[in-house]
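Contributing new records

If you add data, match the layout below exactly. Sequence lines come first and carry their own label; structure lines follow with theirs. Keep one chain per record. Anything else will be rejected by the validation script.
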Amino acid sequence: MGERLYIGIDLGTYQSTIASSAGAMQTIETVVGKPKDPVARNMLGKDVLFGAEALSKKLACNIYRPMAAGVAQDDEANLAAAKAFVSHLIEVADPEDYDEVFGVICSPSHITFTDKSNLVATLRGQVNAIMVVSEPFATGFDHDQYMGAVVVDVGAGTTDVARLYGTFPNEDDEFTVAEAGDWLDLQLMDMIEKKYTGAQLTKDMVRAWKEEFSYVGGNDEECMVELSVEGKKNVVDVGDIIREGCEMLIPYIVGAIKAIIATADPEYQPQFRNNIILSGGGSMIEGIAEMVADQLADIGDVRVWCVDNPIESVASGALKLANVMPDDQYTAIN
């Protein structure tokens, strides 16, 4: 057998990360741009753009975010965009230097047969064999916390919760809720528009403010941002809105954690309560671990902590898993 490359991929709604056994690690926004017309194609000098480059030229492009809720959207245009994006992402790992490529791909906890089929379709021709695991499991594996832990991945498209006890979780061990980063962006956008009548906003603007300022608990913090009202520049404070919006997400996270613990083997419930791990972009909200712990106090003593590397942890855990899994755990897709 020739030399094999292992890769771990976190295909996210907002951004995706790849890690390889050759040492590559890169995160790219999950965005594909295709020139709108021949003038745009001539100006851009290419047929397709990805990530930040696509967003910087979005007025000249048809923009695709092909991984809604962490899975490829089921239409021809988005499936083509997803396949192009995955090909671009895998190129980071220089797969042409190897005889074969085995990949562990991460997805939300519960995806349909169609979603799995679409995921395989985006990878066909890119890798020789794949294994699909959930994002919370990959995070737990990355931190050696897969024996008695509850992992909560607060992503852009979904919030995924899993209880881990030393084996691959089954369907009953995992829970998915739709309230996550994208949902929060829409809440914040609505709240800002109501407070500042006539404000001209985009979801990307609101997402950037959230990522810069997000926090929960305590007193309102000053968060000054620039927005336009009928084309006129305004500098306003959105600190109270950021806090209120972020705190709206907490009950959904807490409810999912309570549900996953309540249905666990009662002998293991104390262990789960004392090792609750928050990951994903949402875990970067300042004060989130403390507020989640406070709202879980009615189920007993709990310990809630956030991973140090939430953006890379899923892909890193997937790669770590790829390196130790026997070949019979993979599915050939050539």
